[in-house]
Request: fold
Amino acid sequence: MRSDTDNPRALYTLFKLAWSQYGCAPADLDAEQAKEAAARVAHQLNIERAILYADENRGVVVPEGQVTAAIAGIGGRFGNDEAFLQALEQAELDLDLLKQGLRRELQVEAVLDRVCAGRVTVSDADAELFYYLHPERFAVAEKREVRHILITVNDAYDENTEAHALQRIELIRARLLKRPERFEEQAQKHSECPTAMHGGLIGRVERGKLFAELDALLFRMHSGEISAPVRSELGFHLLYCGEIEPPRQVPLAEILPRLRQSLEERQRDQFRRQWIAQQLDRMNAYKSPAQVVNA
Reply:
């Protein structure tokens, strides 16, 4: 009798796991990775046996075209056929063994879809109730567009000592107070931050995304305002506060279809996990090896 390590599905599962989790062929896993992968493969195969042992598997058929499409999808990730076939060979697989493994995987997915069919439904009323019971999940934080000019502090350079850096940024600010529309130009010319290439643009930020000193100042400013110099661990900054997006609550009408879908997916996952646990208990209750239904 063949062991799980000889099983096409086990070889395919290891092949898929190695490339998706570790980015390499199974043969290239180190000892620790190989041990972890083997345990995960064994666990996955045990779950699959329980699913395929269930009465719900009876009569489920996977169309050949679905298997072919799945193989094409996997092959497309390797760039060309030669690399794909080489990866299969390294995993001790060929196209026939891959097809067997994929057919079993698709069979499992089809059984789980059958199990959940008609069992999980979320109405508009259910979604609306969830929306009003959890308003914090649909709150959008305030965002502010911010640009800055940075003069770094570095005692190794005379022009970047603490005193000189502060003097330089104060001169820039004096010019900007007369011509605030030149902020982007002055950032491109004087800022010592890579954002200078984009006129000092940091982007639209929420609270807590900048250095604490900058964050506290920005969220006290008015739109169009230029700050006084503010010190961070990098040096001195001038901030320009652009458009302010006030905090808001996402309207129910805007979120309802996606909310229903999200709640249904979550309930479906919970139902699947419970059902699989029941099938594992059922399979383990028998002392003889489980026989796959529809084999």
Summary: The radius of gyration is 30 Å.
